DNA sequence: ATGAAAGCGCTAACAC
DNA sequence: GTGTTAGCGCTTTCAT
């Protein structure tokens, strides 16, 4: 390539990386010839010489949960803009496997994005010292992180409901031991108190349609006019279970979901959901990682706020009586 | 590292790659010292020297469709066993974007796995000449590929149904223009003919719960005793729509799904589905790629057969009258 | 503004 | 069985 263009290879190299250091005519000629011969600088050789691979490790616990697909997609896209490639690893919800993966990956990529990490804090701290690390959906001390503020989103649902006259709401909680429930319930209670409403908590139940159908019994008997489900499966079940019991949605009871799996937009009625802007989260994570890679400080966690998507399943409360 | 162990670096290198060429004591010593100092051979340097990066490109159209999550996970796991890493790219269902991605990736990885490719045949052929390429869920001439034989799976559903005395079945077809429908319908008709049954085709309809609910009207009026839905969303809708119209599942009508999104196992009744063994597909793809990388010929496409999972939603047909 | 040369960390061919 | 050496294709000083 350099020979063909009649210049030294260092000049070719410069033409690509520091275009300003090369005289315009030379630069153009090099570019043109490179195009003609389909020349692309080898990332590997560059990596060896610069110490940076252009690779970003992305670790997610699973791809079965619809939460992570969009996150991975967004991260990949954002990384691509920075001319980086994503090395994806899936921990299969095992903390031990995740630890191994992160350990290994940390020696082979420029930086790491780890979503909903199950690892121990101490380990993550250690890793962050060795390599730029961004946590998504997990907070560990001052480590760089992108947080999705579902509790405040759930609170927004409560506001919406209370604003429509509902005074007695039910939250159907998720699987026993889910770390997600407590903050949501706390946020919910706070809003309810402000708005003069009551919160009834049903569950915990497994996040399945079936469990949702069964818990409908409890919900129907609880004397509430609105219910918020832990996730889409729960809500799908609720819809079905309430219908079976002759409870009309939304006329008798309003229903909302704390997540937004796509099916919920095509049920009857379409369900009011919390949309989690995972695209934003992915972009934010990449931006933050890029900052770390430039040697800048992580700064405060980026908090992504869910957006309330109001659909047919939530309605003004019927006037009492 | 070499210095610490008192040997030449080539010996260290050999101790890792061709252990047999190094005397056992030397090898052990090297390994021990390497462990102690946490030494890991640089993949980048190795890549530059050998011309192989250890990277495998994986291209999928989207992660929103639950089909691809498990496929990606399986592929990643299988690749890991071979000490390879997956560079994931998502085409967002755009043929143009996919083409760009494949083009780019092909210069930076050892091999490529492309799922449900939207690219043109000629392009894929060209790429396959430049770099080991395995297609998943798409067949192009003699190119290496892993196929998922849904038509024969759908036929298995028909057999199951016909075996239980059903003589009039309905297939609810997917989105207009779906390439998946025609082969399924053909397989269905063939089986029906053999078994002395009739096939009614409803649709095409969009693959949404809502459309499934609406098409239930048609299905209910079609005088069939069993219905096979294009996918999970369709079936979820059917379940709901049939119920609303007083049609009991499975007593009046049996219902089955041509895919197996997890929700369907926790509906009421649990739905008979076609399980697509995507784990196998991922493994097969990696194995096949590995073969190509060794310079062997691709061989015939690997065909993965779906497995029929019989649940509560399919029942013996009621005796006529 | 450009060239020459060193070196990134490894592998592989060739000596010994 | 092990050491020596020559690259792999770039980036980056240091000259010019």
Automatic annotation (TrEMBL), chains A, B:
<dbReference type="InterPro" id="IPR010982">
    <property type="entry name" value="Lambda_DNA-bd_dom_sf"/>
</dbReference>
<dbReference type="InterPro" id="IPR000843">
    <property type="entry name" value="HTH_LacI"/>
</dbReference>
<dbReference type="GO" id="GO:0000976">
    <property type="term" value="F:transcription cis-regulatory region binding"/>
</dbReference>
<protein>
    <submittedName>
        <fullName>LacI family DNA-binding transcriptional regulator</fullName>
    </submittedName>
</protein>
<keyword id="KW-0805">Transcription regulation</keyword>
<dbReference type="InterPro" id="IPR028082">
    <property type="entry name" value="Peripla_BP_I"/>
</dbReference>
<dbReference type="Pfam" id="PF00356">
    <property type="entry name" value="LacI"/>
</dbReference>
<keyword id="KW-0238">DNA-binding</keyword>
<feature type="domain" description="HTH lacI-type">
    <location>
        <begin position="1"/>
        <end position="50"/>
    </location>
</feature>
<dbReference type="Pfam" id="PF13377">
    <property type="entry name" value="Peripla_BP_3"/>
</dbReference>
<dbReference type="GO" id="GO:0003700">
    <property type="term" value="F:DNA-binding transcription factor activity"/>
</dbReference>
<keyword id="KW-0804">Transcription</keyword>
<dbReference type="InterPro" id="IPR046335">
    <property type="entry name" value="LacI/GalR-like_sensor"/>
</dbReference>
């Amino acid at each position: 390539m350099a020979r063909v263009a009649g210049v030294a290879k260092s000049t070719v190299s410069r033409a690509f990386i520091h275009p300003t250091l090369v005289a315009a005519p030379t630069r153009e000629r090099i570019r043109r010839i490179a195009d003609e011969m389909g020349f692309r600088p080898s990332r590997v050789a560059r990596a060896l010489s610069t110490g940076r691979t252009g690779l970003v490790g992305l670790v997610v616990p699973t791809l079965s949960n619809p939460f992570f697909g969009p996150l991975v997609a967004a991260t990949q896209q954002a990384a691509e803009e920075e001319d980086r490639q994503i090395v994806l690893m899936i921990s299969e919800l095992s903390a031990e496997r995740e630890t191994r993966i992160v350990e290994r990956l940390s020696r082979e990529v420029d930086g790491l994005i780890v979503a909903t990490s199950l690892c121990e804090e101490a380990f993550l701290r250690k890793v962050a010292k060795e390599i730029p690390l961004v946590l998504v959906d997990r907070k560990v001390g001052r480590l760089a992180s992108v947080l999705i503020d579902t509790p405040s989103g759930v609170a927004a649902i409560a506001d919406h409901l209370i604003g429509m006259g509902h005074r007695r709401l039910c939250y159907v909680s998720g699987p026993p031991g889910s770390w997600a429930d407590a903050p949501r319930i706390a946020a919910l209670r706070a809003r309810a108190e402000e708005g003069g409403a009551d919160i009834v908590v049903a569950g915990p139940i497994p996040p399945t349609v079936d469990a949702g159908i069964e818990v409908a019994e409890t919900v129907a008997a609880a004397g509430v006019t609105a219910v918020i489900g832990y996730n889409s499966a729960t809500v799908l079940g609720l819809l079905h279970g309430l219908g079976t019991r002759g409870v009309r949605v939304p006329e008798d009871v309003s229903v909302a979901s704390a997540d937004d799996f796509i099916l919920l937009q095509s049920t009857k009625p379409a369900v009011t959901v919390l949309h989690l802007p995972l695209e934003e989260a992915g972009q934010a994570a990449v931006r933050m990682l890029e900052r770390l890679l430039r040697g800048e400080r992580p700064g405060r966690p980026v908090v992504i706020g869910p957006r309330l998507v109001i659909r047919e399943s939530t309605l003004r409360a019927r006037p009492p009586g």
